[in-house]
Task: inverse folding
């Protein structure tokens, strides 16, 4: 569930109320979701409540968790300004993993935060220092024009400013301790960050996806991200166990926002993962391959979305909502097709 005690988004600090980003004009929106923790709307892919990042401040020091894309940098910087911090007070910029909706704006953001260290999983370090492969893969999928519209020009992070995350390491931020935990399953280069002061855990994609628009009831719609190419169901289930054992008061998701009842939602995510593996193996066993396999799995995921909302909220999806979920349905299907194809090839 979303954090019921959190106030509504503030429309603060826009000068003169709006900021130009390409041809789009977007208001600065952020809200405090726990003591000293601010959720920042990133307007990813020109949508609201699709992805966010976070600012933590304590004792005159601050950390940014997740950077989204270059289009989000102005929102992050102006939130820092609006909560009364100097940009030199930002001690850390931390990304949960290097997928571009989480880390694409890192190099550009670091240019504006001269006192910050950049914290990343060791597997992601080289790609942040030299993002050529990331850029090439995005251009291959979207083309040059869409790459620049969605992501801007991805900037390298200076090697001397990179801090490699260590599993179990504690970063000190003012009076807080931030525990870094290695959490593969969605990606091999994934960590989560646990703020011991408030019991808040920043989960990236390790604790699934759930959009506020689909959570008016309890428990709403929460599902794992099985996107290509490193989905590992056994590791994902172990990651869920690790998160539950930390007993967080809330999980702060990048997609998107605060969720409570952590153990119950972990169970729901486990069921989704088990469903995902089962249906992928079933469709592969029926002879589906390549694009046909992905297409069949996309249909299965849509059916699962519909059934979940019908069972729990007594409604289906309208066309606008289907468009909002289309990226997740397609990416999850692609990841499952890749997973099962690779698995069966290894069995031969």
Result:
């Amino acid at each position: 569930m979303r954090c019921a005690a959190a106030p509504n988004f503030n429309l603060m600090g826009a000068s003169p109320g709006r900021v130009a980003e390409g041809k789009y004009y977007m208001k600065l929106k952020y809200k405090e979701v726990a003591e000293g923790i601010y959720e920042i709307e990133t307007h990813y892919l020109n949508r609201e409540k699709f992805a966010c990042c976070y600012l933590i401040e304590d004792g005159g020091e601050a950390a940014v968790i997740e950077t989204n894309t270059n289009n989000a940098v102005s929102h992050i910087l102006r939130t820092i300004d609006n909560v009364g911090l100097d940009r030199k007070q930002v001690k850390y910029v931390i990304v949960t993993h290097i997928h571009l909706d989480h880390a694409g704006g890192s190099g550009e953001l670091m240019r504006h935060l001269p006192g910050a260290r950049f914290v990343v999983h060791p597997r992601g370090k080289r790609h942040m220092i030299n993002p050529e492969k990331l850029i090439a893969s995005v251009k291959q999928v979207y083309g040059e024009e869409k790459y620049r519209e969605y992501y801007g020009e991805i900037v390298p992070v200076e090697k001397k400013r990179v801090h490699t995350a260590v599993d179990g390491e504690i970063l000190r931020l003012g009076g807080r301790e931030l525990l870094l935990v290695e959490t593969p399953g969605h990606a091999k280069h994934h960590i989560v960050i646990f703020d011991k002061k408030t019991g808040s855990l920043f989960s990236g994609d390790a604790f699934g996806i759930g959009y506020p628009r689909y959570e008016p009831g309890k428990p709403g719609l929460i599902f794992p991200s099985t996107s290509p190419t490193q989905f590992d169901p056994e590791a994902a289930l172990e990651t869920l166990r690790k998160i539950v054992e930390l007993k967080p008061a809330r999980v702060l998701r990048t997609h998107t926002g605060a969720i409570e009842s952590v153990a119950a939602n972990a169970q729901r995510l486990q069921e989704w993962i088990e469903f995902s593996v089962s249906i992928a193996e079933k469709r592969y066993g029926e002879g589906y391959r390549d694009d046909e396999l992905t297409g069949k799995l996309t249909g299965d995921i849509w059916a699962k979305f519909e059934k979940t909302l019908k069972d729990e909220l007594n409604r289906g999806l309208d066309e606008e909502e289907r468009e909002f979920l289309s990226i997740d349905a397609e990416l999850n299907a692609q990841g499952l097709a890749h997973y099962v194809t690779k698995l069966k090839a290894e069995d031969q």
